[in-house]
Specification:
The structure holds 3 protein chains of 3 kinds. By secondary structure, chain A is mostly helical. Chain A is 73% helix and 0% strand. The chains are: A mainly alpha, B mainly alpha, C mainly alpha. The interface between A and B is large, with 52 and 53 residues.
Chain lengths: 105, 124, 189
């Protein structure tokens, strides 16, 4: 049962990967990556039960934290294209700079 | 005593199985939604809701499987963390997309993303 | 028919996903997408390390690959463009030839390495065996690598952690802090 759950999660990861590789806009890619990192946490938790290794849950905990930090970095980049900008309002208007980031492919 | 503990074990397994399969179904449906839905906000809806709900269901199912132990405590901790971080990440992504000038797809015709009125010089 | 090994099956599925991620990195020209894809690649790689029971490597891979290097890539993308030029055919051919050559070299080297878990290999007969024997007695930690890193040479690891922490503080101190403009401060007030 648990092994089936692990493969189901990996199927979900593969589906998300389609959106990650294709995603028309960068927001789609960021969304897919975020969702994928959540599934990675779940996968490690499930695999720790499959393999009877409860200490792997610590790894899952750390991955949850790292994934969140990465998402915040990506979102900050998306919004301001600068890592050390304040979260309130970027100088010179938020909209003009970010629009040309969207890939048209 | 022995029979009672057997009943409890079986009940726990059944509960765990139900939780795990519901969670897996949520997760897979969300993943399919991320592929199938037409624009970013709907995809965000599919991913965000199922990420929180499905992940919590799976983690609770695993905790039920583990019983009263340290592993269950860790699983609940992970669940608590995901319950806090996933909606925040979803919100941040939606905020970034909105600030980036993406308009939601309303109605049936694909609307081109419009520039917000307050923005400076329009980008090429 | 040998018995079904769950860890092998999970590893195989993860490797398929990793190859897909690597191919996507090669194909994509949007550098932001490449940064995200490589983060996902190292996340998958880290899961694979966990499945192979190398938790310490997995921690490092996740922290460095998915965390820090993504932030560094994004920080570099702030200063450069986010579009890559498509490479010419000859350069693609050269890269493919180099990759194939290295892959072939590694494959040729594999038969000279000891079998996974071989009790006669040098790693398992010399000082390593001592640690394997004394760890359950000295420290009740199931993972020998963790016991060595955190206890036998704990002071060393502590020193390394202190160095890395100092380096982090230095980076934070050197980075220019964004000054709020007066207008922003007024807006916020």
């Amino acid at each position: 049962m648990l092994l089936g759950l692990a493969f189901g999660l990996m199927l979900g990861m593969a589906l998300l990967f389609v959106r990650l590789a294709r995603g028309p806009t960068i927001y789609d890619r960021a969304l897919a990556a975020n969702s994928l990192s959540t599934k990675v946490v779940l996968l490690i938790a499930v695999v720790s039960f499959v393999q009877q290794r409860p200490q792997w849950l610590d790894v899952a905990l750390v991955y949850a934290l790292i994934g969140f930090v990465s998402v915040i970095a990506v979102v900050k980049f998306l919004r301001y294209r600068a890592m050390h900008a304040p979260m309130t309002r970027p100088p010179g208007g938020a909209h003009a700079e970010i629009v040309d980031l969207e890939s048209g492919q | 005593m022995n029979e009672a503990s057997d009943i409890w074990t079986n009940a726990r397994d059944v509960v765990a199985a139900i939780l795990l399969f519901t969670g897996l179904a949520f997760t897979l449906i969300g993943s399919i939604g991320v592929i199938r839905f037409p624009d970013f906000y709907t995809r965000l809806h599919a991913a965000g809701v199922t990420d929180t709900g499905g992940a919590l269901l799976i983690l609770f199912g695993l905790a039920a499987l583990a019983g009263w132990s340290f592993a269950a405590l860790k699983l609940l901790l992970i669940g608590l963390l995901l319950m806090v971080t996933t909606p925040v990440a979803t919100h941040l992504l939606a905020q970034a997309a909105h600030a980036g000038g993406r308009e939601p797809l309303i109605g049936r015709s694909p609307v081109k993303p419009k520039r917000p009125k307050k923005s400076g010089p329009a980008a090429p | 028919m040998t018995s079904f090994d769950p860890s092998l099956a999970i590893s195989a599925a993860l490797l398929v996903l990793m190859i897909a991620a690597a191919l996507a990195v090669v194909r994509t020209t949007n550098l932001f997408a490449v940064a995200i894809l490589s983060a996902v690649y190292s996340l998958l790689c880290a899961v694979w390390f966990v499945v192979m029971d190398a938790i310490d490597v997995a921690f490092t891979e996740a922290a460095v690959g998915a965390g820090i290097s993504t932030v560094l890539y994004l920080g570099a993308l702030v200063h450069t463009g986010d579009r890559a030029r498509r490479l010419g055919f000859m350069r693609l051919l050269g890269g493919a030839a180099a990759a194939l050559l290295f892959g072939l070299a590694f494959i040729l080297l594999v038969p000279f390495t000891p079998v996974f878990g071989d009790p006669q290999s040098p790693a398992n007969t010399q000082v390593g065996l001592e640690y394997v024997h004394s760890t359950p007695v000295d420290i009740a930690v199931p993972n020998v690598v963790t016991a060595v890193l955190a206890s036998y040479r704990g002071l060393d690891t502590f020193g390394e952690a202190a160095v890395i922490f100092t380096a982090g503080i230095a980076v934070v101190a050197i980075l220019p802090r964004h000054r709020r403009r007066k207008k922003d401060a007024e807006d916020a007030a």
